[in-house]
Write a structure and sequence with these properties.
heterodimer, A: 305 residues, mainly alpha, flat, B: 550 residues, alpha+beta, Dipeptide-binding Protein, domain 1, Dipeptide-binding Protein, domain 3, 3 domains, four-stranded mixed β-sheet, 18 helices, 19% strand, globular
């Protein structure tokens, strides 16, 4: 187990290097540059900016400098926000995304899994059809529709919750709800599918034949394997949900990390894009590792090798 | 009421004073407000500052949101009147201009201090202005100082000795500026954010981080308390500001909101007291202008299509004229954009005092076809397929498609629309890799040169490849002209020439559309959409006062 984890962590290094290299060159391939604007900036000023950020050096040298700094988690200052280091931007925005994402994920699991279990146990009944229809709707409604609709009803018609901004517990409700809906729906479907498959297994029949109460069959034996598809989905889903969603962040004016990834690319903010992409990549790999470890705990048939 | 507003806009177009309060006359049932109108409990203004400021270092920044913040923290030699924006005494309490218009002597108020208590003198201004001009500062608006003798050469590194620049501080309270040519709008420049003084000691100690809340020191009505990226900046009143007695706000919260719908939602919910122009979705305007807290006015900005004259067939002036005559501005501004913009055939917007504006380009399909024939493409035969480039935006797309159909229908030519994201679009316009491109320009100060200067040969904002010795000559003549009337006439000639040569096709005049809660006072309708926060106050008794007035 320890050897497995160590090996996986070591494997992350070349993976991150490949991602860093690809991103480094791809952002520079995009037309335009970080200092273009609708209003002309004098050529002398652009040359000066390029010099101060080392963009006047040969590309190979820029690349090596970048790697050397990135290894120390130093991505330099953002080009768009020159008073801020990329690291500071990430560390300021990430806790917000983490909190929003964690609530949304918790909410999604707490609601999604029970719905899926109930739907599986009552397969092909009205409850099952209703749950799955709701799940289909949940998956299908995009954030940018659901968010504004919630604001319209909850904030501007009933005046129950603030329409946006990240201040106080009540401001968390609508963004969490908006962000989690699609995940609730997806997790419910995955749980239902997983449960249905498990409930047909011989060992469940054996458990029932032994005369175990249905509750023990479902919760002690079936659920553990039934949620496996959810667990494997949770790895990438956690990364995605926690890294922030540009839509939810802009609809609710949440100062999270998601917008930096998108805006950084639009603004050709090379350092910011590289910093956020690498951070995201590392985060995703760690989560995948956690999922793999969790798998062995849930399913004795899986072995780490 | 929309009709009334259109009438008001039309009157404005004729150069008349705009009947601002017409809406009150028509609202016989009493004013209606959009959302919550409960004033805040204390003297705190919460407003939407727009996109996250890139920075707040006055000498370096560009853009409205950044400028609004800089103007709250710093004050220049002159300061804009809250209504007319005419320069008024700021850190300088008086000044003299020499008879030849070349030397400005400013006298600073006695006892000026920075917000940390350090004394502020003429040397601070000298150092700050020279800093803007230093090539290594990479200031985006260094050209604002080019009227000053030696400034342009110093900025380009052609002269290294700062004493050769016409900026001097002979003593603590006297600041002398020597210009290369009389610049009638120079006092407008001294209130612009680029020329605000900055604290040398802090900058030299903290480097690029000097603008962080824990370090920054200012000389304006407010000091920065906190700044959270993508969320808000919070300001407190600066008790050491020379005119602190007149500042009635204790705190200001500037939210960084970008999503237009979110801006309007927060305004409606009463969280935001002022949602400035540019942050109201254009499709909401016909609905919002029914409310008394909606304000529409003119804005010194023009949207236009620029033509890349370095490409065939656009090197032919008759082709450009044909495209200009085939532009139905009315259909775009009044039809497509539902009257939220005004059709406009000039490059220079309205509202420049003393400027005899030449007639603008007009919509005339018959003449357009005639020009096309003279260009050698009768009925559009033999004309290559051309494309209209625009950056990703809903309005940009709708306008491009409307123009596409106008030009195809009127001229019988084939037009494509080409959408690019912001960075690629900018690159294409700078590198002249387009046929026709969407552009817009916002005035920086109240003088036509802020628009006409962009079309000089080789100007970085020209981006059409158009170069005309006669046009450049007229601008040069105006720059040294001492008689203001004659100067304006010369500038008008230059604009007439530009519109006839048509490297640009103006389409519409921007309008401001902002939402101001009725209890917010002191935010006036100004020509450049600049609103000094110094004069703003919260009127908690507004509804009583309104009832009494009725």
């Amino acid at each position: 187990m320890a050897a497995f984890v160590v090996r996986r962590v070591l494997l992350m290094i070349p993976t991150l290097w490949v991602i860093a290299t690809l991103t480094f060159f791809m952002v520079r391939l995009a037309p335009g540059g970080p200092f273009l604007s609708e209003r002309d900036i004098p050529a002398t000023a652009i040359r000066q900016l390029e010099k101060s950020y080392g963009l006047d050096r040969p590309l190979g040298e820029q690349y090596l400098t970048f790697l050397a700094h990135a290894a120390r988690l130093d991505f330099g200052p953002s080009y768009k926000y020159p008073g801020r280091q990329v690291r500071e931007i990430i560390f300021e925005a990430f806790p917000v995304s983490l909190e929003l994402g964690a609530w949304a994920l918790l909410f999604a699991v707490l609601i999604g899994v029970p719905i899926g279990v109930i739907a599986a146990l009552r397969q092909n009944t009205g409850a099952d059809h209703a749950a799955m229809a709701a799940a289909l709707a949940g998956v299908s409604i995009p954030n940018f529709v659901l968010g504004p609709l919630l604001v319209l009803w909850v904030s501007l018609t009933w005046f129950l919750l603030p329409p946006a901004l990240w201040e106080g517990p009540q401001s968390r409700v609508l963004p969490v709800l908006t962000l989690s809906t699609a995940y609730i729906a997806y997790i419910a479907r995955l749980t239902r599918g997983g449960m249905l498959e498990v409930l047909r297994q011989d060992y469940i029949r054996t458990a029932r034949a032994k005369g175990l109460p249905e509750r023990a069959v479902v919760f002690k034996h079936a659920l553990k394997l039934g949620v496996l598809p959810v667990v494997s989905y949770l790895g990438p889903a956690t990364a995605r949900i926690i890294m922030g969603s540009i839509v939810v962040e802009s609809v609710f004016a949440v100062p999270g990390l998601g917008r930096h990834l998108v805006n950084g690319a639009f603004n050709r903010d090379y350092t910011l894009v590289l910093g956020v992409v690498l951070f995201y990549a590392a985060f995703l790999m760690v989560l995948n590792l956690i999922v793999d470890v969790a798998y062995t705990r849930l399913d004795p048939r899986v072995e780490l090798s | 009421m929309p009709r009334l507003l259109l009438l008001a806009l039309a009157l404005g177009a004729l150069g008349c004073a705009q009947p601002r309060d017409a809406r009150f006359a028509s609202a016989s049932a009493g004013p209606r407000y959009f959302g919550d109108v409960t004033p805040p409990a204390d003297n705190t203004l919460t407003y939407n500052n727009g996109a996250e400021p890139e920075g707040i270092d006055p000498g370096v920044i560009s853009g409205q949101p950044d400028g609004r913040v800089a103007r709250a923290i710093f004050e220049g030699l002159t300061t804009p009147n809250p209504r007319t924006l005419e320069p008024e005494p700021g850190q300088a309490y008086r000044w003299e201009v020499s008879a030849d218009g070349l030397t400005y002597t400013f006298h600073l108020r006695p006892g000026l201090v920075w917000s940390n208590g350090a004394p502020l003198g003429a040397e601070d201004f000298r150092w700050s202005w020279i800093r803007v001009l230093r090539p290594e500062t990479a200031s985006r608006y260094a050209s604002f100082l080019y009227p000053v003798r030696g400034a342009e050469d110093f900025n380009h590194g052609r002269i290294r000795d700062e004493r050769q620049v016409g900026i001097q501080a002979p003593d603590d309270s006297t600041f002398v500026v020597t210009l290369a040519a009389p610049t009638p709008y120079f006092l407008f420049l001294t209130e612009y954010y680029t020329l605000l003084p900055v604290p040398r000691a802090v900058i030299e100690r903290q480097g690029p981080r000097w603008t962080r809340p824990e370090h920054i020191v200012g000389n304006g009505p407010f000091v920065l308390r906190s700044w959270r990226q993508g969320d808000r900046l919070v300001f407190d009143k600066n008790p050491r500001y020379w005119d602190a007695a007149r500042v009635r706000l204790d705190h200001v919260v500037a939210l960084s909101l970008e999503d237009l719908n979110t801006c309007v939602n927060l305004y409606k919910a009463g969280v935001v007291d002022w949602n400035p122009s540019g942050y109201v979705p254009s499709q909401f305007i016909p609905y919002l202008r029914e409310y008394s807290d909606y304000r529409g006015g003119t804005y010194q900005a023009v949207a236009y299509y620029s033509i890349n004259v370095t490409r065939k067939p656009f090197d032919n002036v008759w082709v450009r004229r044909a495209l200009a005559f085939a532009m139905d501005r009315d259909a775009i501004a009044r039809g497509l954009l539902k009257g939220s913009r005004m059709p406009w055939g000039n490059l220079v917007p309205m509202g420049y005092p003393g400027y005899p504006r030449p007639p603008g380009q007009t919509y005339d399909p018959a003449r357009a076809r005639d020009c096309m024939a003279r260009a050698g493409f009768p009925g559009g035969r033999g004309f290559p397929t051309i494309s209209i480039l625009f950056n990703t935006s809903e309005d940009g797309k709708r306008i491009a498609e409307a123009v596409q159909s106008m030009w195809s229908r009127t001229l019988g030519i084939h037009v494509e629309v080409l959408n690019q994201e912001w960075g690629s679009y900018l690159q294409a316009t700078v590198a002249l890799q387009y046929d026709v491109a969407r552009r817009s320009w916002v005035g920086d100060y109240l003088d036509p040169t802020t628009f006409l200067g962009t079309m000089k040969s080789g100007d970085g904002n020209n981006r059409t490849g158009w170069s005309d010795a006669h046009y450049d000559g007229l601008l040069r003549a105006a720059a040294v002209e001492l008689d203001p009337e004659k100067r304006m006439r010369t500038l008008a000639q230059a604009e007439a020439l530009l519109l006839d040569q048509a490297p640009v096709i103006p389409i519409y005049h921007f309008a401001t559309s902002e939402m101001v809660k009725p209890y917010v006072r002191g935010i006036e309708d100004t020509p450049l959409d600049v609103h000094p926060l110094k004069y703003v106050w919260i009127d908690r008794g507004w509804s009583r006062r309104l009832a009494a007035a009725r």
